[in-house]
Amino acid sequence: MRGIVLSAFVIAIFTGCLSAPAPILSGSAGTSGGSGPGSAGDTGTGGITSGSAGAPGSAGMMEGAGGNASGAAGTGGTDTGAGGTSTGSGGSGGAAGTAGSGGSSAGGAAGTAGTTGRGGTTGTGGMAGTTGPGGTTGAGGMAGAAGRGGVGGTVGPGGATGTAGTTGTGGTASACAPVDGLRVDDPCGSLLSGNACLHKGKTTDDGTPFSAMKAVTMGGTTGTTYQVKIHFRGVTEPTHIMSGTPGTPANFLTGGTRYPDGSQESTYQQWRLTTTNPNQHYYLNAFNSVGLAHIVELIDYDQTIPIAAGATVTLDVYDGNAHEISNTVNTPPLAPSGVPGSMSSGQFMQLNVDGCN
């Protein structure tokens, strides 16, 4: 009897295998198998038609197909379980009459990578019947894409290079630059007795006048008059000048007139600065309170005078005769600080600008 029953089941299985449709129309997804080595994917659709994919896990039991006579779907057989690594579980039994073969559990759609999945529970055995064929191994879920690193802050653009400033127009200092360093030297030629010497270029002490000069043009903005602070330094013999306005020191004289040729005063040379705008002259060695004698004086003082842009500035020396007092009258010779001394023991005057506004 046992043999007959077994044969009947074999026939039924064989018949079912020939006549049952290949896909299972309504198998549901098996539960997840044990945890597998990969990261868990999202649950895939099971079965050929509509089963959800099982979570990845270890191999489960084979799917049992055992349907009853009324075709109620059996749950997974004793050997049913999720496929191997990243494998979905088998679908449930097929419908109607003969024992349906296990629905193949199609691989779930690619799941995003997650944390390691927990193992699915083992499926319960199906209804009595012969062991159905194992469900097809579900395809492993695709490995989830690695999470993107946080986007770094974008590098801010560099600051635009500033445009170069335009070249400034000449300032007050450059306006007075031509005056700075203006100098006239009256070097000695042949030495004479009494600490005198011929002006360089004179061959005899013939009593004829001597003069030397140097002129520059004031810079600056047209129409502007600058207040120019000038530092006067030099070595000169003293002279007398008629009228004029004494400054500080008194030997700086604004205006005035030199004595005419042939007078004793005219033979003591006069050092003078002249500007054409404003039209003015200044005597630099007008020692009117000192008696005329064969001596030299040290010149070292500051004066502020107006000079307009474009004016001609002239420094000159005039002597009514052919000789001058030599700087050898003093031992050692006089020498103002900060400028070169006398050339060949003669006299000189140098101007330096200390202010220009």
Whole-number average pLDDT?
Answer: 69
The secondary structure category is mainly beta
How widely separated are the two ends? 136 Å
Taken from the alpha-carbon principal axes, the silhouette is globular
Number of strands: 15
Annotation field: number of helices: 2
Instruction: Give the biggest sheet.
Output: 6 strands, antiparallel
Stretches where pLDDT falls below 50 for ≥5 residues?
1-156, 164-170
The helix/strand order is HHEEEEEEEEEEEEEEE
| Share in β-strands | 15-25%
Query: Mind telling me the C-alpha Rg?
Result: 61 Å
Number of discrete domains: 2
Read across the widest sheet, the strand sequence of neighbours is 4-13-10-11-8-7
What percentage of residues falls in helices of 4 or more residues?
under 10%
